[in-house]
Structures are given as C-alpha cells and as structure tokens.
Write a sequence for this structure.
C-alpha cells in the first residue's frame, strides 16, 4: 500500500515539476551550454539569419499588345554568405490567363506555375520573366495579379548546426583583446563596488537600528535606489553628472569648489597632485563604482539591519555595566555578530557585481576605461557583430563564476556546520 | 577629560549645523537663488558660539525660549550677511536652527563629564549627520528627476541651476513634457506593453511555480536535494551569459520583436526565485491539514487549490509583487529582443529616446518619472510584505 502510494507521490512530483523544469532548462541551461558550442565557431551577427529565397513581383503591361502582360520576378538569395539548395517556386495565375513560352525550368499545373530553380549561390540574383496571355478579352486587372504572392522554399545549411569548429575565438579573447586589462577593470569594479556597498550598508544599518523620529520612513527611502528601474536612475545620474549642463558640476562651480567642470563619466584618468606625486585616478570607473554603491548598498543594509535587530539587548546592557564606550561596543559586540552576514553578502554582491551589465552600459557604454567582461560580451556580439567572440567571453565569465560559486557554497556549508 | 569633550561637542555640533545650513543653501540655489558661498568660517564660529552659550546657560532658561533666541540670532546674522534673501529661505534657516537648538539642548556641563562622553557626543552627532546625509544623497537624484521634468530646455539654458517650478503657469505648460511623451513618443502604448508583459509574467510564473514549489516542499522524489541546490545555482547565473544564444535562437525562430518571447524569458528567469520563496512558505503550513484532505480523497491538484492556495495568499502576493517589479524594471533582454518601436517596453523606450542626442532632457526625465512611479508606489504601499522577501534574495542585481 505505502509502496504504491510513494510511487504515486513520485509520479505526481515529476508531473508538477515538469513545466517549470522544462522552461528553466530551455531558457537558462540550454543557452549556457549553447554558448560553449557557439564559442568554438566563427559566427557573425549576419550569419544567424537563415538564408531565404525571395521574390519581388512586378507587373507590366505591354504597349503594343493589350491582351498580354509581363510579370517580372526579382529573385534573390537573402544571404550574402550562404547558398540555398533546391529552390522551389510557385505562383498562381488568374483564370483565363496562359503563360507564353514558359521557361524550361517551370511547368504549369491547374493555373499554378511551378518552377524548380535548383541551387542559388550566396548573393544570387535573377530577373525572371513570364509573359501571360489573356484569353477572356476582359480588361486586365494588374492589381489583382500583383496581389497574388509567389511562394518560395529552399534548403540551406545553418551555420550554427554544422560541425566546423575553431579555437580562434579563444585565442583572440586571451591574446588580442587586452584581456588582462578587461579582467583587472572587472575586478577593480567588482571589488570596490562590493566593499563600498557593504561599508555603507553597515553605516546605514547602524543608523536605522537606533530609535529616532521617522525611522520607518527612513528605512523605506533607503531602499529606493535598489527597487527603482535602472534605466531611469542611470539617466538621472547621467544628467546630474554632465560636464556642461549637469547640476553637480554647476553647483560645484557656483560654490567655487572646482574651477573647471569635471567630465565624471567621460574622462578616463584624473591626475591628482598629492604631496608632489602625480596620482592617476581612474575617474569614470570611480564614478561608475559610486553609482553602483549608491544603488546596491540598500541590499547590504537590509541584511545587516535584520541581523542587528536579532542581537540580544543583554549583550549591550552588560557592556554598559562594564563601562564600554560606543566604539568598543561596536568592535567587540556588533562586528562579531554581523561578521557571518557580511561574508555571505560579500560573496553574493561579488558575484552579482561581477556580472553587472546594465549600469555601466547605460552610464558610459563601456567607454573611458569602464569596459568590464559583461560589457565586452555585448560589444563583441552586437557592436563588432562577432557572435562567436561574444560567446567565448561569456564562457570565460561562466568559468570564473563557477569558481566564485564553489567558494560561496563552501562558505555557506561551513556556516551551516558551525551553527 | 572635561575640556576635551566640551571642545569636541562644540566643534562637532557646529560642523553639523554647518552641513545642515549648507544643504539648505544647495537646495535654495536650485530654486534659482544666487548664492555663491557657504560662509564656512562665519557659520562655524556662530555654531561654536551658540553651543558654548547653550553650555553656559544650561537649563536656567526654558528650552523653547532658548531655541527661539538662538534661531532669531542666527537668522538675523545670516540674513545680514547674505542680504535680500526671499522670506522662505530665512524661514528655512530659522527652522533648521530651532531643530538644532533642540538637539543640543540635552548637553550640559554635567553629562559632558561622564565616562566616554566624548565618544558619545561624536556618535550622536554622526548619527544625526548620517541620517541627514543619507536622506539627501538618496533622495536628491529622485528630486532632480521630478523637477527637471517640469522645466523647459530654454529655461535651463538661461540658468542651469534654477529648478523652481512655476505653478502659476497653465497646467498644459507645466506638464508639457508629459503631454509630449504621451502624444509624440507613444508612451501610452509602452505603458500598456510593459503592464502586459509584467502582469503576464506574474501570472505565468505563478502557474508554473506553485505546483513545482509544492512538489519541492512536500513530496519525496528522486533528485530532490539536487533540484533544491540547482535552483539556487541557476538563480546566480547572470542574464548576460544567456543573451547571445537566446538572441540567435530567437532570431531564427522569429521570436524577436515579439512581446510573447520576452514574456517567456522573464518567466524562466524569475521562476527559480519564485519556487525558492514559495517552497519555504509551503513548508511552514501544517501537514495535518493535508492529511485530512487525503482522507477526504482529494487528489494533489485538489490539495493545492483547496488547501495550499488559500493559506498562502500573503506569500503568493509578495512573490507576485516581486516578479512584477523585476519584469517591469528589466532592461537587458528588452534591449536585445526589441528593436521595433511598436513593441518597446517602457525601459527600452526610454533608452531609445536617449539614443537621440537631440531629445530634450526633460522628456527623458518625464519618461523616467513615468517608469519609476509605479514601482516605488508598489514598494511603499506593500513594504511590509516586500522587505522580508528582499533579504531572501528575491531581487537579483
């Protein structure tokens, strides 16, 4: 009885899971594996359009012969690279019409012209003509003839499905592409963004953990940057930071903090004279990191606040009795209590910042020294139109991610063991 | 010890006062007032003076009277320094001083002698300072977004710092940017598409996620642990590594420029977190209820519909709100999949608008306000349900 029941249970479970698993598999897992396949191919953006045989129909009346009409089909292969095999063509002609001197590749069957054009090379073009004779004696309606659309079909290779593989993309990724520049920018962005958002998260959580008027209100507004749409926020910042019309530069100029406007998003380096040393600050990258901190510290704030509110009050009371000051309390009570949350947060934010695309894309588009790996995927794939390269960079991202995740889950596992 | 904490108190409180006054000056400048100097030295001296007098007077005078005296004094000096400021500016300064005097009132010669009093002073003022600064930094961009959408290009060219809104003008003039984006740029249509995609994603995600979450929470089957961890791992994978294969496949299947294609992708990307959140909640529902239902010969479908669903309305609604917000805010896939202006979502439409350098920025900001308001409204209104979900990691990003 129970055996039968557990069988039913299993079957039900699989039925309930099937739709979700199928969808996730086809939209998330399949593409990750497909990336591997594509990354070993030389594919451009234009190659992924499946070649189609096309025909544009033009109807012309003939001056000296009113009962005849000429139809020109402008035939072409839509692809510039791939051939189409076995092109078939069919078009209906109205009743009472008959083709004159039909091309030898074609034949007429019950008011329909069938043609077999064979193979079309890439870029193939042909003007194919048919002359129709009107037998009914009625006036010829050109529009009617034109409204009938010809049907074409053909077979072609799909460049994505053949088995020609190459290592070219990976060679390019690692050797020609200033790969280590990319990698270091990505890590710089990820690391400082993560640390910054955690530091500000701690500060904000400390604030909101105290009692003051408007505390709940404060907690809501602190989360605004995190829940607002990235497009709106990025463009607002872009307007604020604009070197000429931007509010920030105008304010700083107005209060004489700076003498010349700063192009915060468009300038790669800012040279700062520091006790006689010229320090080069990566200006645009720093601005982008500040945006990132502004947008993502709320997550750290929420996590840490939740943890802080769970710290037993007795600990602080005991510290008061012992005569500890606020700094001591923070270092010896608060910090150890939130350490676990911070390490988990660090990993989560690190992984997510590592993959951040939208924020940089909208702010700088990857210019002025802010090109990270995810931006590079987009640029390779859709600006340079090299799908294969884009996939290869994606693969690099996935591999690095797997390493981070391995560390993260080890960390989670250890935490679970400790508790 | 006594002197040290008193000096610290005077210094830090006057720096706090200076920053309050400076933020007020920045905001006033943005209303078109010509202010070019923060008067750091004078304000700081005034602040130190006021906090010293406060120490000396102590509670010999009632704190309300004391505050009013300080405020009048400061406003007068500040007004004399700057000359001819509008009345609302001075009222603001007066208000700031009243607030400030109330804050420093609790410090007197007695409690500044206590242990750690200097640390406490620093901490308390840093807290106040932090609250003001955080609120300012967070809200300022949102504030600028709104006020810019009510200005005109010409007015901003004359004075790029004047963001005052002229309420005396005709409503049509005031909301001109909004009329333009709805009339010329078809934002009405984009709102409809965004709403359709987001609501559609919510419905489809719930239909897929509820049974799956129930199976993970309640039923025993081979590979259950593997599935639970996979959900988390899959959730970590970023959209950017999915983009190229999805783009190629969707192009070949003719699913690009198709709102339905976008809906499928959004559903798949929100499914893992929806399942994760729901199964956690389902586990907390007492099993006995279902056992009774099995006695009544209800099948699994019946159990989900009749028992689980009614009991988990709060969890389901919070998942629904999240999925809605994620789909509404999503940008990358809409950038990749939509390039026909007839099928744009709001985010994509704004990005498209910004691609034209000629587009006046107030239109861009009006569009941003339109896309931001619904999300913030949902968030504030349903905050109770949403905050706990955020810590469960429901919004990736």
């Amino acid at each position: 009885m129970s055996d039968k029941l557990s069988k039913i249970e299993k079957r039900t479970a699989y039925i309930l899971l099937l739709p979700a698993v199928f969808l996730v598999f086809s939209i998330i897992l399949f593409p990750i594996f497909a990336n591997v396949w594509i990354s070993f191919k030389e594919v451009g953006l234009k190659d992924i359009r499946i070649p189609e045989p096309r025909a544009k129909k033009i109807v012309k009346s003939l001056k000296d012969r009113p009962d005849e009409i000429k139809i020109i089909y402008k035939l072409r292969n839509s692809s510039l690279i791939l051939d189409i095999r076995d092109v078939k063509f069919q078009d209906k002609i109205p009743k009472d019409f008959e083709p004159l001197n039909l091309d030898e590749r074609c034949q007429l069957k019950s008011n329909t012209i069938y043609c077999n054009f064979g193979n079309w090379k890439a870029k193939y073009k042909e003007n194919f003509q048919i002359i129709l004779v009107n037998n009914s004696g009625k006036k010829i309606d050109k529009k009617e003839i034109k409204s009938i659309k010809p049907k074409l079909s053909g077979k072609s290779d799909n460049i994505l499905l053949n088995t020609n593989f190459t290592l070219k993309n990976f060679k390019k990724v690692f050797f020609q592409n200033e790969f280590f520049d990319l990698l270091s920018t990505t890590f710089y962005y990820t690391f400082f963004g993560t640390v910054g958002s955690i530091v500000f998260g701690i500060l904000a959580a400390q604030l909101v953990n105290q009692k003051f008027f408007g505390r709940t209100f404060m907690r809501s507004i602190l989360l605004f940057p995190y829940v607002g749409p990235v497009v709106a926020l990025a463009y607002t910042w872009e307007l604020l930071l604009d070197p000429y019309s931007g509010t920030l530069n105008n304010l700083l100029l107005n209060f004489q903090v700076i003498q010349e406007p700063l192009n915060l998003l468009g300038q790669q380096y800012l040279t700062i004279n520091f006790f006689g040393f010229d320090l080069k600050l990566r200006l645009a990258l720093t601005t982008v990191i500040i945006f990132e901190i502004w947008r993502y510290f709320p997550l750290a704030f929420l996590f840490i606040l939740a943890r802080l509110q769970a710290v037993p009050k007795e600990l602080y009371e005991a510290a008061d009795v012992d005569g500890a000051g606020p700094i001591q309390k923070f270092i010896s009570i608060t910090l150890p209590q939130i350490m676990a949350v911070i390490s988990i947060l660090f990993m989560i934010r690190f992984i997510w910042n590592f993959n951040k695309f939208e924020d940089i894309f909208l702010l700088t588009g990857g210019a002025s020294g802010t090109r990270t790996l995810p931006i590079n995927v987009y640029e390779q794939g859709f600006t340079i139109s090299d799908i294969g390269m884009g996939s290869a960079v994606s693969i690099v991202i996935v591999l690095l991610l797997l390493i981070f995740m391995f560390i993260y889950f080890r960390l989670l596992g250890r935490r679970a063991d400790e508790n | 010890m006594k002197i040290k904490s008193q000096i610290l108190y005077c210094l830090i409180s006057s720096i706090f006062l200076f920053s309050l006054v400076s933020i007020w000056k920045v905001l006033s400048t943005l209303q078109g007032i010509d202010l070019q100097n923060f008067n750091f030295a004078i304000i700081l001296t005034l602040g130190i003076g006021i906090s010293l007098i406060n120490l000396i007077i102590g509670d010999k005078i009632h704190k309300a009277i004391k505050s009013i005296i300080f405020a009048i004094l400061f406003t007068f000096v500040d007004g004399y320094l700057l000359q001819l400021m509008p009345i609302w500016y001075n009222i603001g300064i007066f208000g700031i001083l009243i607030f400030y005097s109330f804050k420093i009132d609790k410090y007197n010669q007695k409690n500044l002698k206590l242990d750690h009093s200097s640390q406490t002073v620093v901490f308390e003022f840093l807290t106040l300072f932090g609250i003001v600064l955080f609120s300012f930094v967070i809200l300022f961009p949102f504030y600028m977004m709104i006020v810019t959408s009510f200005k005109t290009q010409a007015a901003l060219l004359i004075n790029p710092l004047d963001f005052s809104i002229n309420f005396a003008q005709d409503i049509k003039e005031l909301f001109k940017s909004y009329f333009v984006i709805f009339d010329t740029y078809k934002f009405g249509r984009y709102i409809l598409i965004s709403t359709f995609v987001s609501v559609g994603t919510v419905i489809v995600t719930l239909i897929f996620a509820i049974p799956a979450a129930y199976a993970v929470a309640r039923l025993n089957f081979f590979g259950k642990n593997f599935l639970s961890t996979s959900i988390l791992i899959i959730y970590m994978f970023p959209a950017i590594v999915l983009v190229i294969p999805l783009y190629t496949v969707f192009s070949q299947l003719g699913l690009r420029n198709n709102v339905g294609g976008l809906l499928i992708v959004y559903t798949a990307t929100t499914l893992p977190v929806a399942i994760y959140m729901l199964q956690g909640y389902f586990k907390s529902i007492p099993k006995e209820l279902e056992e009774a239902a099995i006695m009544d010969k209800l099948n699994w479908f019946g159990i989900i519909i009749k028992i689980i669903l009614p009991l988990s309305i709060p969890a389901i609604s919070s998942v629904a709100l999240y999925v809605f917000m994620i789909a509404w805010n999503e940008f990358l896939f809409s950038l990749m999949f939509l390039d026909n202006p007839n099928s744009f979502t709001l985010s994509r439409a704004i990005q498209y608008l910004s691609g034209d350098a000629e587009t006046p920025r107030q239109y861009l900001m009006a569009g941003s306000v339109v896309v931001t308001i619904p999300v913030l409204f949902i968030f504030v209104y349903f905050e109770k349900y949403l905050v706990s979900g955020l810590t469960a990691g429901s919004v990736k990003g």
Remarks:
- Chain A has a mean pLDDT of 85.
- Chain A touches chain B through 96 residues (CB under 8 Å).
- Residues 2-39 of chain A form the longest helix (38 residues).
- The first strand of chain A starts at residue 53 and ends at 61.
